[in-house]
Sequence to fold (309 residues):
Amino acid sequence: MAQHILEMITEQVGYFPGSVNIGLVRGQSGAILIDSGLDTQTAKKIKKGLDQIAQPLSAIVQTHAHADHFGGNAYLLSCWPEAQVYAPPLEEAVIRYPLLEPLYLGMGAQPLDELRNKFLLAEASRVDHLLPTEGQVEIDGVLLEVISLPGHSWNQVGLVVEGICFAADSFFGEETLKKHKLPFLVDAHETLLSLVRLLESPYRGFLPGHGPYTTSPEAVLTANIHCHRRLYGIIEGLLAEEKTLEETLALLCERLQISIENATSYVLYRTALMGYFVGLVKEKRIGYRFANNQWLWGKLPLAEVGRER
Fold:
């Protein structure tokens, strides 16, 4: 399938396929985009696509605040300054102040120059309206259903129009799962709940942020669930003896045949592992304690879990 060539699903709903899929809904006065892609180069292709169908941009609806999903905003808004931007709470702060992304990935320290790249640091964008994390919102005469799909990001949402679910990064296409091996997330427990919600949903079509559109999502959603549960098991096994986060990451990458060769990959994988730790703690499968000036993690039961000794 050609990258960034508009594919219509219904008369009103379609998408621009690419490494990051960008949704499109025809509104009363123009096109509503769901996310905007990584950068200006991507955004220029989207503008060309909108020009070809004689649709001005009326709105951009953000599913979450990762650079590859809002990096095209600045260029598109320079072309259509009247277009309105919608984003979920908290996610909108990162869109307006994108330095927050490399900041939180770098443990709150001033980001190294190596982390100031387009994959982690998009150009800033205004946000005009907060989305509900659950409910309905009318944009340019179109009623969109907003569904809460946290896990990959804190307040990630999906958007549903005419039974078509733009599912953001709540699940990945199977090729993407195989490629990354340790999927990025901030809370594995919430990720699994979001996957179950989608699996039980009545929608007739599903478009992930990364992967092909499908009307039969059971296989890919199940593959995502199995991936996360498999990683749970591997991590739990590695924590049979207490380890730090960094020690666990090194062993996990060796097990998964991941080779980290730059700071960007390291902070993404480290954050993902912490997201699995968070999920395992929520499910009371692992715990932590402090000893010898180290934050140690291990399978339960631990002596004095969560206490310094």
About this structure: Confidence is low (pLDDT under 50) at residues 305-309. The two ends are 58 Å apart (CA to CA). The first helix runs from residue 40 to 52. The domain at 237-299 is CATH 1.10.10 (Arc Repressor Mutant, subunit A).
